[in-house]
Every structure is written in structure tokens, then in C-alpha cells.
Design goal:
With 216 residues, the protein is mostly helical. Helix content is 59%, strand content 0%. The longest helix has 18 residues.
Length: 216
């Protein structure tokens, strides 16, 4: 079950009023830094990633500099981000491809980004959207959870959720919309105990309406 397009637009407007400062919370200065930070953010908080990259990027903020590190050296530097062996391997492999195929530059299209090791659709959407202004919705755990709770989407997987969000919101709202949903998920619509009493979307939210019915 999903809410109407009209309601979906109202949800966007309310979220924009609630979180006017919604934006990527990973710290970066270049598309390459964002690519590395986003790879590191899998199964890890942005807060933790920012602490790691604050140190890492002081010396290793380009593909050229990154590839001077061995696998073990990079693992040691990103250890606290979790899944560090895989992440180190993918960061180094992607950095070499950028040097060999793209003159050290990060490609701008989602399709090309997804050819890089460790870059799935979500990561590609984050980089393309934030670094290059490509309209995209990156569906992470927060976006998946809250969009299906509210009724913006009704899907059992991230691909379906992304597709339905792209259908219900115009392209001009995709990139900002994904940040708004992340802010909602992190601050109010939490996984275990959503703070419904603090939420401005209760009159639109299917999850809340269902909760109300169960308590009648």
C-alpha cells in the first residue's frame, strides 16, 4: 500500500521544512574522497568514517597517493570502519582502475561508477548525486525503512524502493529527497523505536495510522 502522489509531495515539503540543512554527512573535498568515504561507510556510521578519513586524507587523498599503500597498511588505517580487508582491497583496486582508465579522475556516470570494485548502486548513486549533481536516490537502510513505513514505497528490496521513489517524486527532488529521508531515519524514524510523537508526518504516515488502529 502506498500514499498518493499528492501526499508524497506534501511529505517532501514537510521534510524540507523539518530538515532544511539535510545534506551528505560524510566529509569530503573531492569526488575521490567521497568515493573512498562512501566505500568505507558500508556497515559503519558516518561519524566513524569521518574520524578515519580526517587522518587518512591528510596524506592519501588521491588515487596516486592511495596506491602507494600496501593492502596491510591501508587495512591498518581503516581498521575501525569494519570489514576492513574487503574495503582496503576495493579502495586500492578502484584507485588503480581510476589511474589506468580515467586519468586519476572519478567517472561521473552511475553506470561507470558501478564498474569499480566495491561500488554497488547505492554507492554509485551517492557519488554521482553529491559530487556531480546527477539526480539519484541512494537507498540505504534508513531510506528503505522510512520510505516503506510512510508509504512512499511498498517494496521488499532496495531496487524496488528506489524505483518507486523515483516514480512518486519528480527528478528535481531525488537527490535532496534521499538526504531528507536519511535525516528522518537517523533522528526520528529509528529502526527499533520510532519517535512518532516527535514526527511531523503522522497525518500522512501509513505506519503511524496502522499503530493508531491497533490502539483503538
Amino acid at each position: 500500500m502506498r500514499i498518493s502522489e499528492k501526499e508524497a509531495m506534501e511529505v517532501y515539503d514537510i521534510l524540507e521544512e523539518t530538515f532544511p540543512d539535510a545534506k551528505a554527512e560524510l566529509h569530503y573535498n573531492t569526488p575521490y574522497e567521497l568515493l573512498v568515504a562512501t566505500i568505507l561507510s558500508a556497515q559503519c556510521t558516518d561519524v566513524r568514517v569521518n574520524k578515519v578519513t580526517e587522518v587518512l586524507f591528510q596524506e592519501y587523498n588521491t588515487p596516486e597517493k592511495m596506491t602507494t599503500l600496501s593492502q596491510e597498511e591501508l587495512e591498518d588505517k581503516i581498521h575501525s570502519c569494519g570489514v576492513y580487508r574487503n574495503k582496503a582491497k576495493n579502495i586500492l583496486a578502484s584507485s588503480r582502475i581510476l589511474l589506468d582508465k580515467y586519468d586519476g579522475e572519478v567517472p561521473e556516470t552511475i553506470k561507470e561508477l558501478m564498474t569499480l570494485p566495491g561500488v554497488g548502486r547505492k554507492t554509485a548513486n551517492v557519488v554521482a548525486s553529491n559530487a556531480f549533481g546527477v539526480p539519484a536516490i541512494a537507498v540505504d537502510t534508513h531510506v528503505f525503512r522510512v520510505s516503506n513505513r510512510i508509504g512512499l514505497a511498498d517494496s521488499k528490496n532496495v531496487e524496488g524502493t528506489e524505483r518507486q521513489l523515483m516514480e512518486i517524486w519528480p527528478e528535481s527532488r531525488w537527490s535532496k529527497g534521499h538526504h531528507l529521508l536519511i535525516f528522518l531515519g537517523r533522528r526520528i524514524c529509528k529502526a527499533q523505536r520510532p519517535l512518532c510523537e516527535a514526527c511531523s508526518l503522522t497525518e500522512h504516515c501509513l505506519y503511524y495510522k496502522g499503530m493508531e488502529k491497533t490502539h483503538e
